[in-house]
Amino acid sequence: MTDEFDVVIVGAGVAGLQMLHKVRELGLTVRVFEAGGDAGGTWYWNRYPGARCDVESLEYSYQFSEELQQEWEWTERFATQPEILSYIDHVVERFDLRRDIRFDTRIAALTYDEPAARWTARTEAGDEVVARFVIMATGCLSAANVPEIAGLETFAGEIYHTGRWPHGPVELSGKRVGVIGTGSSGVQSIPVIAEEAEELYVFQRTAAYTLPAGNQPLDAELQAAVKADYAGFRARNSAMPSAGLARFPPNPASVFLVSDREREAAFEYRWQRGGPVLLGAFNDIMVDKAANDLAADFVRRKIRQIVKDPDVAALLSPKQLIGCKRICLDTGYYETFNRPNVHLVDVASAPIQQITPGGIRTSAGDHELDVIVFATGFDAMTGPLLRIDIRGRGGLPLKEKWSAGPRTYLGLGVPGFPNLFTMTGPGSPSVLTNMMVSIHQHVTWIGGCLKYLADNDISAVEATTEATDAWVLHVNEVADRTLFPSCNSWYLGANIPGKTRVFMPLFGFPAYAQTCAEVAANAYEGFTLTRSGMAPAQAT
Ligand code: N01
Fold it and tell me: In what helix (H) or strand (E) does residue 374 lie, and over which residues does it extend?
């Protein structure tokens, strides 16, 4: 007999775990499926050397339990991957979450049975369960991207992807290592790999902007002060566009209203403070190209000061706008290129042609390697959803529905896919925020929706096409008021060959959270609600 649950959750990362806790609170039956061997999602998979969060520890934590946030002690301003994973393990144990999770189980297909108003979830092994609701907690950056490079399978050495780093030790000492990619994963891992490897070759196609993280042991007084009013701390962060950094808010003034000296001092102050706050030095950096150029020039000057070889400094200096690709945070990234064992390979001017048994061949020559590390990122936001064969009403595949790019209402629901929720989905603030806050908001909203459906004897909830069309327009209009869509970022899907270019996340957390609350208060306006055994009860 096929097992049946009220809710199936796909993914036991940070989002799936909190959602599981909420669904249990509602008294619903639930099964979570997780492809990994344990909980943690991003933090389970991304074990590469130097992996660390770029959101401050005091903010990158759950807020659903006051006891939990009081008892956990963070040790560093920006937590390492192992520390976050042990935090997640603590949460899993504390709330006894493991018993509802099936690990090492990847969902291959989800199919909606319209007459029964039930989803069937099929695992890769072919097992099936049935559920009324499916909650996709598959993450935004979980579908690893390994570019198709000729000859990859011929390489005689070891190959790793930062997002699929082995759980056992990886020995790099005495080896010639090549890292392809200089986004956040490359920027974090390169300084650490450089210390271990005999020779490190960094294959850079686009130079990234990276700012000093300013990591340090967490100030005990600060931790105590935050804990004394964690609710207030959370509320202040939730009122920020990025759902964070309220302790160091963006400056509301224009860069053009200050003198050159004041501008430089403002940039320098934020550079020294560490973290991503340089982008908030003035209010026009992300909306006005001339303002953006001033911030970008400041960082390029820093690169020239740090990197001794002027040719290397020039290659490391990004040309695109600052911030329109996700800004990176680092510990000693630019300094690493002063080491004699580190070599920057410019694959923009001399592209990678093929991987050979002995290494990487660019149009300028061969690089002999023992290890290749792909720090080449992810098929972001839609990848984790579309790698599952999701079929809604009438057997419509989500892949077909989204052939011209993702279309959701609030980043939570898709027309034609009743009772399926996409946590931190495209069309929601997600990756432009502290994910912990966006996840909390989605757990709360979905939990409220499930309760409303149960209280009102409603068997199906489905985003309307009208509401979705208007929402997609809104997301694009908001993006077009910023500089975000102006470079080839993964926010746009531009890192994946053939992927439709659509700016996927929505800028601005507070307005979004307000809209979601209003939709809920208005009996889920924009969704069609179908009462049990009846035709649609409400179509808005
Ligand atoms: O991936 P990316 P990532 N040949 O897509 C290059 C989060 N994150 O894993 O820019 C040569 O940013 C590509 O070059 P280009 C964070 O949100 C957070 O680093 O396409 N190069 C680029 O340099 C982040 O933004 C944390 O020209 C190729 C790199 O690979 C997101 O994850 C840590 C190539 C990919 O950069 C993704 O970061 C890590 C090719 N064929 C990640 N294909 C923290 O919390 C791709 N590249 C700190």
Answer: strand 371-374
